[in-house]
Amino acid sequence: MNKTMAKLTREDVLKLARLARIDLNEDEIVEFEDEFNEILQYVEQLQAVDLDGYEPTSQVTGLVNVTREDQEKSYGYKPAALLKNVPVTEDNQIKVKRMIG
Amino acid sequence: MGVWLPISEIAAKVQRGELSAVDLIEKSLQIIIEKEEYKAIIATTADRARERAKHIDERVAQGEPIGRLAGVPFIAKDNFLVFGADTTAASNILKGFDAPYQSTVIERLEAEGAICVAKANLDAFAHGSSTENSDFMTTKNPHDRERVPGGSSGGSAAAVVLEMAPFALGTDTGGSIRLPASFTGSVGYKPTYGLVSRSGVVAMASSTDVIGPITMTVEDTAVVLDVMAGHDDLDSTTIEREESYVDLPANIAGKKVGVITEYMGEGLDAGVKGQIESAIEKIRANGAEIVDISLPSLPLALAVYYIVCPAEVSSNLSRYDGQRYGYTYAEAKNLDESFAKTRSIGFGKEAKRRIMLGTYVLSSGYYDAYYKRAQTVRTKLIEEFKQAFDTVDFLLGPTAPTTAFKIGENVSDPMKMYLTDIMTVAVNLAGVPAISIPAGKSNGLPVGLQLIAPQRNDRKLLAFAKQTEGVIG
Fold it and tell me: Per the CB < 8 Å rule, is B325 touching A3?
């Protein structure tokens, strides 16, 4: 592999947190930086494997293109039952916060 | 003699009116309360269970046929959608989630008369090897309360060993059924990938997640699998089943069994090794041919798994955003803050760790070096399994390198905790079936023997495991 794994920095951790929509506190930032580097160091052993002639796996049992007729099918669920776990609803719709605030 | 008869006998007696489903459920619920201190159970589904039991007894009285699991109580890991109690996956973010529909497997078990009595503890979202990552509590090992039961299906395995029910359901993404079975002295079955529908089960890593039973005997496992297995329109990864997984023939004599050399060497606890070697001798004495076999890429499996699994976790857990279900941070000023605050407060540390690692290995610039490379090493590993099965019928080794460790021993070092799965993850990556069966004890703690078969050979594996259990038990 041409790219040697660089050490993950504090900035990287903060960027990942933003991408994953997770706010981290200071303790978590410090802890994750160390732990991620330890884990990445462990998985680095894969870089030395000779993989000539192998393709990446995408499915293990050989199923391809599982499709069905595009037909309406009722499972008998009522909207109220499907919406009962929604934090905020209005007129049988899911209500969310404004996008720009 | 334990509390419970073999599952098929319980069902037959209920059907004949010799046992009442109501009494069975009460017995199960009573043991759950008596053994509460082990913290195996998050919640019971007592009201619904009692109602269903009463209904079954009434139908029996009218001479109606009930099914192969008539009146049999069972416990579901709390990542299965079940009516009658919340489905939390032992996570704060799903606390209070009231399932609008049930898992396919729960529907299939209920259709044969089985009754779910409780939801079992797990590592939150099944992320872990000890149940210590549960956002609620740590389950204690029935053999030593200071030790973990293994994970992530630790509550399910402990519950079965504590005789709370004759069977429990678990999920196995990297070893989460087999490891707790090994640590608690129960039977844990990981079917061929796709054999059992995952519809209605909280997703972790979709390319390796499977569902399976935990029981005290291989026969009980086979009975439960026989009800659950097979294609489901609601899970397009499901495969066609074999005709039957019950009435298993003797299956040791003449079989060729490969002992995995990579699992028998460095890092294997001496006491565990002794038990496995003794089991191997008994299998040989019963007519199997035993050979050593090497799968050179096996030592890489854990590294592959800890790239592939977090990658899939980061994708599967993106749905927990606080808008449609689960915990939501109500004071957020806008949607973006709502997402971030909801996830920061709702997810435990291990979920955050895996989501972020997964985000990293899938991110632009690192995708090829990590994710794609891991999936290519996975192909090599799968080829090695195929080559091995060209020469042997089954592979054999320990389920775990050690017996159950102490609560707290590995929590501060995630990498050390991940290494617990070193002998189980390869099976998931290859999609092959495997089983952990009890192989005696070392220093008073259970040891698990792992048997592995080629894909879609679940029946042969169960038959071999059933006879093996008889000769090593």
Answer: no
- Cα separation of the two ends of chain B: 15
Compute φ and ψ for B416, nearest 5 degrees.
Answer: -65, -40
Q: Evaluate the omega torsion of the peptide bond into residue B412 and state whether it is cis, within 30 degrees of 0.
A: no
**Is the reported ipTM for this assembly greater than 0.90?**
yes
pLDDT for B112: 98
Q: Which of B355, B429, B431 sits opposite A20 (nearest CB)?
A: B355
User: Residue A1 pLDDT more than 50?
Assistant: no
Q: Which residues in chain A (23-52) have CB-CB distances under 8 A to chain B?
A: 23-24, 28, 32, 35-36, 38-39, 42-43, 45-47, 49, 51
Inform me whether the C-beta atom of residue B231 falls under 8 Å from chain A C-beta atoms: no
The residue type of B350 is E
Residue among B98, B356, B413 with most chain A CBs within 10 A, to mutate: B356
CB nearest to B353's CB, from A35, A58, A85: A35
Question: How big is the A-B interface in CB pairs under 8 Å?
Answer: 173
pLDDT of residue A2: 38
- Write down the H helix ranges in chain A: 10-19, 26-43, 79-83
Give the strand pairing for B115-120 and B41-44.
antiparallel
Task: Name residues 81-140 of chain B within 8 A of A (Cβ).
Answer: 96-98, 100-101
pLDDT reported for residue A5: 63
Q: Do B379 and A99 touch (CB under 8 A)?
A: no
Domains, chain B, ordered by start = 1-473 (3.90.1300.10)
The answer on pLDDT for A101 being more than 80 is no
Whether domain A7-49 has CATH 3.20.10.10: no
8 A C-beta contact, residue B119 and residue B41: yes
Positive/negative CA dihedral, B371, B373, B374, B376: positive
Catalogue the active-site residues of B: 77, 152, 176
CA atoms within 13 A on the CB side of B78: 36
| Interface mutation vs chain A, best among B102, B379, B456, most A CBs within 10 Å | B379
B interface test, pick of A13, A39, A78 with most B CB neighbours within 10 Å: A39
pLDDT (0 to 100) of residue B82: 98
- Amino acid residing at B99: A
Per-residue confidence (pLDDT) for residue B1, from 0 to 100: 59
In sequence order, the β-bridge partners of residue B448 are B438
As averages over each run of 10 residues, the pLDDT of chain B (473 residues) reads: 92 98 98 98 98 98 98 98 98 96 98 98 98 98 98 98 98 98 98 98 98 98 98 97 97 97 94 98 98 97 97 98 95 94 97 97 94 98 98 98 97 90 97 98 98 98 98 88
Contact of B331 with chain A, judged by CB distance below 8 Å, is answered with: no
pLDDT at B258: 98
Give the pLDDT of residue B167: 98
B360/A16 Cβ within 8 A: yes
pTM, entire model: 0.97
